[in-house]
Amino acid sequence: MVKAISIEGLSARLGNKDVLTAVDLELARGEWLNVIGANGAGKTTLLRCILGSVDYEGRIDISGLSEEGALSRARMIAYVPQVPVIPPGMAVIDYVLLGRTPHRGAFAADSEHDLSVAATVLDRLDLHGFSNREVNTLSGGERQRVVMARALAQETPILLLDEPTTALDLGHQQDVLDLIDDLRHERGLTVLATLHDLTLAARYGERIAVLADGGVAITGEPAEVLTVPLIAQHFRANVRIIDDPAGPVIVPVANRSDRETP
After folding, report:
1. Could you tell me if 157 and 189 are in contact, meaning their C-beta atoms sit under 8 angstroms apart?
2. Choosing a second label site near 90 at 20 to 30 A (CA), which of 5, 193, 250, 257?
């Protein structure tokens, strides 16, 4: 296995709180790994440690990262945050072209290749008619796809996704995740994503890691990880699991069976 990301003994604090205390995790090049866990388990902090935007202790090795620094990491890792910061008044095409900055420098003019890359990702994310729209005037789902377009325009070998489908309707959830999976197979993209939707986590990606109590509680294939006892333990949820060739389907079950039907 050629490792893309290797994490050993990772610990991180936010303020006075220990969020991560003993994380060990590995991703193979071209793999898609989904990280799940209850609110506050440290999923976002884990991604930000890999990105280099949070102080941590332990070891994170990124394959192909020859030197430290924000620019070097930006050429290797693209990140889609839960709450992106979007400059006011910026047009969609200009925002997406920010993804090309690590390859051309902050003040260099956009090349024909840069414009072509931006146009291609906008088209593949069903945003071809949005180029001149102001980003902050778009709906939440449209804005989320624009943020994804910027990350994909970065053309990095590693993609970090923090709840990438939260603002998307069902159809666009499938479109975005299918596109990422296509790119994974086309160019060996390595994907590390956090997801709240356990069925999506099972359908997309080869492995799932459960984050709990500051570390990784279990890692494995979706059918191994997503069991009724584990979901009850880590999410305090009552569910039923439907076996499907594409992956387990997680169905919430009401905790009270004696409620009257209107």
Report:
1. yes
2. 193
Return the pLDDT at 27.
96
Task: Say if strands 77-80 and 249-252 run parallel, antiparallel, or are unpaired.
Answer: unpaired
Cβ atoms < 10 Å from Cβ of 254: 8
* Tens-place pLDDT, residues 172-194: 999 999 999 999 999 999 999 99
Average pLDDT over residues 84-100: 94
Residue 155 and residue 183: Cα distance in Å, rounded? 10
Does residue 258 have a pLDDT over 60? no
Put simply, whether the predicted model's pTM sits higher than 0.85 gets the answer yes
Six-digit token string for 81: 């945050």
Domain ranges of the chain: 1-64+157-262, 80-155
Residues 6+ apart with CB under 8 A from 221: 206, 207, 208
pLDDT confidence band for 66 (50 / 70 / 90): low
